[in-house]
Amino acid sequence: MAFNSTFVALVLSIIIMFCLHQLQLAQERLVLNGQRYADSRLLRFLVAND
Questions:
Q1: From CA 37, how far away is CA 50, in angstroms rounded?
Q2: What is the pTM of this model?
Q3: 12 CA to centre of own chain
Q4: Which of 2, 11, 23, 33 makes the best surface tag, with the fewest CB within 10 Å?
Q5: How confident is the model at residue 50, as a pLDDT?
Q6: What is the mean pLDDT of residues 24-31?
Q7: 5, 32, 49 from 26: Cα distances, Å
Q8: How many CA atoms lie within 13 A of 46 on its CB side?
Q9: Chain-centre distance of CA 4, in angstroms?
Q10: Domain boundaries, the chain
């Protein structure tokens, strides 16, 4: 019985860690896309004119 509950806990922790990893990747992609958008669309308006 103890082995079964340990196995279930390990499987659940692997599933949770995979989900958290995917969430972190999605967040990093969102930040990078926001930076690219700012670089390509917004920074051109901040150029100082001499």
A1: 26
A2: 0.69
A3: 20
A4: 2
A5: 63
A6: 98
A7: 32, 10, 38
A8: 6
A9: 32
A10: 20-50
